[in-house]
Design a protein that fits this description.
Length: 261
């Protein structure tokens, strides 16, 4: 039934936004916006490798994203390179590798369109279970490590005094980002995936007064954007992924008006 696929799409998008909102806050606090883009480029390589070797594209995305996360931390700490330099190297090299792999699997390229542009209306029951499991794991890890993540992000000196292992915490954050990006591919697509992390968090930053409040508002804003984007898509036959991002952009604009008042 039509209602079934709409409910699955709403549930998948809402669950993704629920965990993407708080993670997006850390992306803004740590000024890691370009890291999200680098992971998105790496995910394209993962998808292509998945098609090439015959494994799940989600597994390929997650595996490559995790390798890029580890490489980013290692290069920044051992090669004494600036963070933006490391991310630029990884983003462009993985994008080039992904395009090369895609050239080897021309017959399967049509299946990549859903990952590039998103196809939330095609979410199946199995996909929804994957999204729900990932969201639950992400929220659990955020709840358990929230204080340590905040300390390393906002008060690194205090984190060192408390004995928090900064590198391990950074790796955890990158792992969570990798999970969310791997899931979000099917919701809004590779070309728009970073928007689901950034726009709700940016809107929340304008109105929230504490880190916890910002995380909660970001999650709620992302979920509202998913619902509004789906409705716009149904009313006007817009592409669903871009409609979700457009709705998030409008909510961000409204947050600016609220701030001025």
């Amino acid at each position: 039934m039509a209602e079934d696929f709409l409910l699955r799409a709403l549930a998948a998008g809402g669950l993704t936004a629920l965990v993407a909102g708080p993670l997006g806050c850390f992306v803004l606090w740590r000024r890691m916006v370009y890291f999200g883009a680098a992971l998105a480029h790496a995910a394209l390589l993962g998808i292509a490798l998945g098609f090439l070797i015959g494994v799940s594209p989600q597994a390929g995305m997650l595996g490559v994203a995790l390798l890029v996360s580890l490489a980013a931390v290692a290069l920044e700490e051992r090669a004494q390179l600036a963070a933006d330099t490391v991310l630029a190297i990884l983003a462009h090299s993985t994008l080039a590798a992904g395009i090369i792999v895609l050239s080897l699997i021309a017959p399967a390229q049509s299946g990549l369109l859903g990952y590039l542009f998103g196809d939330i209306l095609a979410v199946s029951g199995a996909d929804l279970m994957w999204v729900a499991a990932t969201a639950a794991a992400g929220l659990l890890l955020l709840a358990v490590f929230w204080r340590r993540l905040l300390l390393v992000t906002l008060h690194p000196d205090l984190a060192a005094v408390d004995g928090v292992h900064a590198t391990a915490v950074r790796l955890l954050l990158m792992l969570l980002l990798s999970l969310v990006i791997a899931v979000s591919m099917q919701i809004v697509g590779l070309l728009l995936v970073v928007s689901l992390l950034i726009l709700p968090a940016a809107a929340a930053r304008r109105v929230a007064r504490t880190p916890e409040a910002m995380a909660a508002v970001a999650a709620a804003t992302g979920m509202a954007a998913v619902a509004a984007g789906l409705q716009l898509s149904l009313w006007f036959d817009f592409p669903t992924g871009p409609a979700i991002v457009a709705a998030a952009t409008v909510l961000f604009a409204l947050s600016l008006a609220v701030r001025r008042r």
